[in-house]
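Reviewers of the previous submission asked for a worked example of the structure-prediction workflow described in the proposal, so we include one complete record here. The input consisted solely of the amino acid sequence. No template or homolog information was supplied to the procedure at any stage.
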Amino acid sequence: MRVLMVSMNSIHFRRWTSQLEDSGHEVFWFDALGAEGTIKELSWVTQKTDWRLRIKKGRYWIKKIPFLKRLNERPIEKAFETYLKEVQPDVVHSFVLYMSCAPILEVMKKYKHIKWIYSAWGNDLFYYQNFPTYRKEIDAVLPHLDYMFADCKRDLALARKLGFIGETLGDFPGGGGYHLDLIDQPIKSVAERSGIIVKGYQGEKHRGLNVLKAIELLDISEPVTFFSADKKLLEYYETSDILKDKNIIFYTPEDGMTHQELCRKMNSALVYVGNNVSDGMPNTLLEAICFGAFPIQSNPGGASAEMIDHGKNGFLIDDCENIEEINGHIQAALYNKELLIKAQEHNMKLRNSLSYEQVREGVITAYNRIK
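From that input alone, the workflow returned the following structure tokens.
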């Protein structure tokens, strides 16, 4: 089968697509942003990039003049249709609705004989359904899709509610499964672990700052690591004499922590905390499960509850703005080693279902179901 992927270049897209290597399918990629360069690790994929600009020399000057900028940029519809005719795919697979479905909708409506798959990631439906502009795109696109993947069951059901009438292909991690041998070390027992690791995003949909404030209330000496720490957390830390007395380390996005380094830290921490206003199935939640840290995770729309049985293999945060609730969950975990041991035993069983090999097998089986 000839599969034409439509997506921006992202780590989740690269990991997902890597699953199709040696699968028997011929894979093509149309970069939804038309950016320069190709993806070296996907050298086996035929790639269409760098299609957007007509004139590249002097483009930064041209961008400053709206009229010239519009003239210099090729419409995505025309570029995509030209490539679609060239590739003659059996199926088009779009990742993220507003980025890779809505811009090519009118083209796909002209080529109804070509099957269309959509992958919903993270906030794609659950969060953006509440915004009129995005909702208009959701309502327009969903009835025209033939198949759908999602990273959680919540979004498969939500898509049905919002107008999707095609066939669901299953819920899988957005970036595919996890290489469980990535850290090249055994999973540490609870007795060998210490401290807390926290996702430090803070923004429209993320509430890492509330976790920092919850930790401020804790009387602990254990190390606390914030990864992907937003500058707002650093600014708050500087104003707090209490936090300065604790053993806290911040890693900002600029520090360039690798995925392997993050997973090693997950394998050393007792507790992981992730706190968001909205999300799909959080990848870092799955990484905590894979590498043995006790997960405490917000649960917008019930997605996290698909993996966490509250009080058994983790804790669910009901209100991501409630600092006392977050504080209470962290304390309850840190001071109940029996709970942590039983939770880790349970999560080690879940771990196998998240392995790269097992997820890849399910994904390829799903593609093979397409008629």
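The chain has a mean pLDDT of 93. We consider this example representative of the routine output the project will generate in years two and three.
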